UniProtKB/TrEMBL annotation:
<feature type="transmembrane region" description="Helical">
    <location>
        <begin position="23"/>
        <end position="43"/>
    </location>
</feature>
<dbReference type="InterPro" id="IPR058533">
    <property type="entry name" value="Cation_efflux_TM"/>
</dbReference>
<dbReference type="InterPro" id="IPR027469">
    <property type="entry name" value="Cation_efflux_TMD_sf"/>
</dbReference>
<protein>
    <recommendedName>
        <fullName>Cation efflux protein transmembrane domain-containing protein</fullName>
    </recommendedName>
</protein>
<feature type="domain" description="Cation efflux protein transmembrane">
    <location>
        <begin position="18"/>
        <end position="107"/>
    </location>
</feature>
<feature type="transmembrane region" description="Helical">
    <location>
        <begin position="86"/>
        <end position="104"/>
    </location>
</feature>
<feature type="transmembrane region" description="Helical">
    <location>
        <begin position="63"/>
        <end position="80"/>
    </location>
</feature>
<dbReference type="Pfam" id="PF01545">
    <property type="entry name" value="Cation_efflux"/>
</dbReference>
<keyword id="KW-0472">Membrane</keyword>
<keyword id="KW-0812">Transmembrane</keyword>
<keyword id="KW-1133">Transmembrane helix</keyword>
Amino acid sequence: MALWVFGSTVYHTLILGVPQAEIMGAIGALALAANLASVFLLLPYKDGDANVRSVWLCSRNDAIGNLIVMAAAFGVWSTTSAWPDLAVAAIMAGIFLSSALQILRQAWGEYRTDETGTKAAAA
């Protein structure tokens, strides 16, 4: 996901040109409302097993992404440059990679626990 977000943004920036800031901001605001609703609904489950935690992290990351997309929209609008959009794509890619690593570590620990029947050592 991280590579797709970054690669897609690089392609759009270098090939298609400056994104439309107004559309970026409007879609970001609508998506933020939907993602915040999901985040608050899933908040009690954020420390659950790897599957549940993954859903919560994805919703949280999407809400964070919506906020920084709205900031990028302002940056694109104020500078008439695509660079703010590209910078946000790099940040979002980092957020996605970080969450993916957290879930992989947790899932691996749960897998090891199930396989051995004992609690795996924390990595």
